[in-house]
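Much of what follows relies on a compact textual record of a protein's fold. The record below shows the convention in full:
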Amino acid sequence: MVVCDPTLDVESELLTGGAPFVIGCDEVGRGAVAGPVAVGMAVVDATHVIIPDGLRDSKMLSEKKRTALAPIVQSWALHSAVGLASAGEVDEIGIIAALGLAAKRALGVLHEQGLAVASGIILLDGNHDYLSPMLNHPLDVRTRVKGDRDCASISGASVVAKVHRDTIMIAEHARHPEYGWQANKGYGSTVHMEAIRLNGPTPVHRRSWLTNHVG
């Protein structure tokens, strides 16, 4: 597998084109069967010319490296935020709408931090804009396939979101240790799925998903 270091090339092009800042955006926890889905955001502007050493998409980093990088990314970014949608919300409205809701909440955090979010460009990992349908007013959202690999702002967002969500699942593990969340973080590992079969689901399980995973 070829490992690529992210750059600020895409962000720089958008900034040169007139955007005052770029909000990198990425989600984590989409495929989990327990716990929230999280959407992270990291904001960069023209002052950002150096990338934190070792920054990559969170999936390419060990848990130890992600945990060490998260506060560095938060200090490096102009602003950063994480929005969540609960397992219950995933069950109620579906995963795509839940992603949009979590992203909207992250934007709300940035707004509370004093960022004029409507003035910038949101650079969203992937090829599907799940955010815009959840907004009351249109924002400039651009999708970028493999953005979490190639764009430093999105890589930073992925690290911040992943560490934030992992911390939540580790805390949940203390309450429900039989599901192994400290290790699997709510994803469908063998240990996790067997524990569901033996003990049933908890309030933080996505119950609508379990019908397809647990016989």
About this structure: The two ends are 35 Å apart (CA to CA).
